[in-house]
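Practice problem: RNA-binding S4 domain-containing protein
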Amino acid sequence: MSDTPKAVTIPAGALASAGVRVDTWLWATRQLKSRSQATAAARAGRVCVNGETVKAAYKLRVGDEVRLRVEGFDRILGVVLLLVKRVSYPQARTAYEDRTPERPRVHIPVAVRAKGSGRPTKKERRELDRLRGYDSHEHY
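Answer key — structure tokens:
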């Protein structure tokens, strides 16, 4: 067995030489589930190429940096291959370089009571309310 990586074959017609629409590329690289979602993301201003917000018809080139806003965080992708058609995930993964920094991990304390310990006392309930950010003296 050799340590040589396997060559990835891209289907005929999947490569484009002059440039690919950004919405098509986002869909083909499996960043978004449908092309209409990719188009809507571009219209909403959640897609930037090289630091500028672009329309869905913007032509991508190899070497461009694409920022896609997903769930409040930016995904930063470097364009390596231009895909026109949707391919399998392992093949699509070779079309971009993921430069996204790791998301910050937030630890939220959770109150845990022993099972079978009954209802909380008034003091325990106030402590739970304080932990959750409620003022137990306010009336709702």
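Discussion: Strands lie at 20-21, 47-49, 52-53, 59-60, 65-70, 73-79, 96-98. Students who identified this feature from the tokens alone can consider the problem solved.
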